[in-house]
Design a protein that fits this description.
The protein has 105 residues and is an alpha+beta fold. It has a single domain, classed as Ribonuclease Z/Hydroxyacylglutathione hydrolase-like (Metallo-beta-lactamase, Chain A). Helix content is 30%, strand content 18%. It is built from three helices and five strands; from the N terminus they run H-E-E-E-E-H-E-H. The protein has a five-stranded mixed sheet with strand order 1-2-3-4-5, with no helix packed on it. It is globular and about 50 Å long. The mean pLDDT is 79.
Length: 105
């Protein structure tokens, strides 16, 4: 029980400190990586857009506060945010998935 409590404390403490990383919310100019794959994330949190004829795929939604930045970057490239049909999360960390709820706004 003590080990579980310590582990949970460590996880939440790391999350709290990580939220202060300004590079995670600093805008970054979107760009084409290769073919139909684009970078649409912030300076230090990667979000990718894959454009397909049947709808676009967004990889990672980053922070809740990142969704407007991601939307702006997608649209700056000439695409419609509403054309995103699939949201993939690369791994189960809150800094890659927290915006998933807001992505549907």
């Amino acid at each position: 029980m003590l080990l579980r409590s310590l582990l949970l404390t460590f996880v939440f403490a790391c999350s709290a400190f990580a939220q202060d990383n300004p590079d995670w919310t600093t805008p970054h100019k979107p760009f084409r990586i290769v073919g139909n794959v684009y970078y649409v994330g912030s300076k230090d949190l990667a979000t990718y857009l894959i454009v397909t004829p049947r709808g676009n795929i967004l990889i990672n939604s980053s922070l809740t506060s990142s969704v407007p930045l991601i939307k702006e970057n997608v649209e700056a490239l000439g695409f419609h945010f509403s054309d995103v049909k699939i949201l993939l999360i690369s791994h189960a960390h809150w800094d890659h998935a927290a915006g998933r709820r807001r992505s549907s706004d």
